[in-house]
Amino acid sequence: MKAFVSGVALLVAAAMLSAPAAAQEAGAIALDPLDPSSAGDPFFGIPSPFIGGHLVPRGHVLFSHAASPLTLSQNGEERAVVGGQSILHIGATFALFDRLQIAAQLPLAVAQSGEGALGAGGATEAIPSGPALGDLRLGARIRLFGEERGVFQIGTGFALHLPTGASDNYMGDGSIRISPQLLLGGRIGERIVWSALGSGMFRSSGNPSTLVYGAGAAVLFWNERLQIGPEIYASTPLQGGSLGITEQTRVEHARATRAEVLLGARGWVFSGLAVGAAGGPGLGEGLGTPSFRVIGTLAWAPRAEDPRVQAKATADSDEDGVLDESDACPYAYGPKHADPKRNGCPVVDGDDDGIPDPEDACPEQGGVASGDPSKNGCPADADGDGVPDSLDACPSESGPAESVGGRPGCPAPPPVVDRDGDGIHDGEDACPGEKGPASTEPSAHGCPKLVRVRGDEVMLLDPVLFRVSTAALPPIEAKSNPVLEELKEVVLQHPEWVKIEVQAHTDNTGNAKYNETLSTARAESVRKWLVDKGIPAERLVVKGYGGSKPIADNATNAGREKNRRVQLLVLQKTP
After folding, report:
1. Biased-composition ranges for Acidic residues (predicted)?
2. Both 108 and 229 in a single domain?
3. From residue 561, how far is each of 134, 564, 565 by CA, in Å?
4. Are residues 293 and 367 in the same domain?
């Protein structure tokens, strides 16, 4: 990718370095602002980051007619220098690795008409009316981010225009042009596609370079076989000066934007064959802006495989292990069968135990009849532990025949686990991750007296009190040391908490900005206390929330007292 970007930069540099020499010559101009997007792109004039597959060729033929693209005021009258311009664009692309595309496109003027420009001495410079070759465009692009059917994609690329067109037919610039491109696009839901372009057209002739930009959006219909939507593209000169419209005629050129709006439709007739049409007005006063444009296109543009189609090919609706495409009963569970008409269909007695499947509690295992519907048709030893169900105290759980607590066939009880080592096993410990004393209250049994951990939050049951002071960090009252000591021990018991936020909150009394500043200072004081007591400083960050996160009603004294609190939030844990 670095090589790709470097290559684009070198091409831009080469074009710019050659500009001074070329600027001294009177040159012509490629008048038509439409630079069609590549075959397979969703829009007519807006390229996209779309690539679409590996080793996939695409091509198109696009016809464009622009009405009155060049009108000049000469000798006190308006002249339709170019009254109409019909161009045929022939393009091809090649996709690689689902990330890279190379492209080529050649414009051919099939008809041009107009009054022509007035040259030196008032002579009319005639408009070539026959076929005329334009500048060959070569290009490449790469998708940098996003998936083909994702909501957001980013790509970059360039287009290099070679001076293959004649300089007297409004089809050629007479010099190299290069356009580095930033491409955006994607899909919104199942029905909307969009693309956006930011680019520049840098010329090595004396004609001004331009900034090129545009965007388009379309709605998909008929299982994505038809799309309809608008697009707009525009270009603005980067500097003023004179502009060569033929080899003999240059006009003063203001920095006027030329833009066009199109409403287009494109449909896929079958497989990869697509037809499309668009039309719309020109906007702005820039040279080359038509009063109206119509477009028609025929393309070979195979679309990237929809993952939903692939999913359908591997679907198993009834989850019986027989794919729907070969399942004779795709919505009824059944085993595989050599007979295609019975493959995947339910059987009357799948395990051949004499008990019909609707009554068989174990339809895939041979068993015996039972008056208990939950055991009817199941093996006499349902859990397969060697203890007959009639003697098995745990018939659905495998266990040894030796009696365990007077219960043959039952699994051994799980070992006693006490993760926090406080002498209270986890099954009874209300706080199995933090050491605490025994308590007759089940919700406090095995918990610290003043601290509770609930998920990622560490809450203090006693408030942290601060002395009134003008110091940057408000001093903590000595009576708050017990709760902070317990808090320190809880943090030390959890080395997996690698990033912890020390929070301080206030009630809504006073100025909100002051409360935020005050709460930040209090949080910093608690952090310093914990660091001084041995908690690594890099594990702790502070955040003062002021009164923005109340947990009780600020309308009462009791509520405000609850809202004035310190607590911790675990931001990051080791895996």
Report:
1. 316-327, 349-362
2. yes
3. 79, 5, 8
4. no
